[in-house]
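Researcher: I'm preparing a figure for a lab meeting and need a structural model of a single chain. I don't have an experimental structure, so a prediction will have to do for now. The sequence is pasted below. Please return the structure as tokens so I can convert it later.
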Amino acid sequence: MYPNFIIIGPPKCASTSLNFYLGQHPEIFVAKIKETRFFSLYYDKGMDFYAPHFKDAGKAKAIGEATPSYSFLPFVADRIKQHLPNTKLILCFRNPLDRAFSSWLMQKGIGKELLPFREAIDINKKQMGYITLEGEEGAKTWTQNIGNYSADDTRLRTYLQAGMFAEILKTWYKRFNPAQVKVVFLDDLKNDFDGTLKGIFKFLGVDDNFIIPNKEIVNFHFDRKANKLSNKIFGIKGTRFLNDLTPKFIKNKLKKAWKTKVPPKLEMEDRLYLWDIYKADIAELEKMLNRNLSDWDPNFKKEKTAVSAS
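Model: Understood. Here is the structure written out token by token.
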């Protein structure tokens, strides 16, 4: 048994929460392990290695999993097309400027990123000019960089690629019928939670009148001091091993205890810098989805503030 839908991300765009919400529907089964990473990291083990993730699906109409990094990996899109050509794909987008900063914060918090935000972004920008994630070369690049925690430009960074939403959509539209792809926005989840979930339920072919009982946000910024201490003692790989051994309910309790009331914010200077990188892709996304995304433009927000103050 294999999935008939996959939440493909991107990272830091509510994929964890979306996976949690969909898993509450009585006609939907989601893999117990969030981020199986099969098509990116364990593909060489074969489809028989993947199947057990869904053995408890029973009579569920919709069977799925969530691996956010799939979204910006074209070689993964090729693999999914080969084995699951009829699967449905779910993407959730948010302001890519905030997404990039959130991703850097997480990498920095777990000790994988040692560089300041702007330096890390500049390295990422340069890498995009000579590193590909297409085909077997891309697959090799991706797998070889797992476990590479170097501070210099030898470590692959994907803060920018994961927010190039128009490019991401083109990657999947090239391989799948656009009718198989559902795009939601984090803002829609915030502003019309039940309506947004209803649209996803319709897309998946399950009862769209079901109301999610637990609407808790399950992924949020939290203080990772414990990770930093553990990294010093056991190293990053050791910390990740200990995290994998820790039961999920304990990790969730710790996260809530360490939740930061006021997470760090992206400075306007860096926001404008990122806007120059993303604005062409955002303009293309607006045309592709026929959606106004001017709210993502920091210049637009500055103009609104000036008008309201006058």
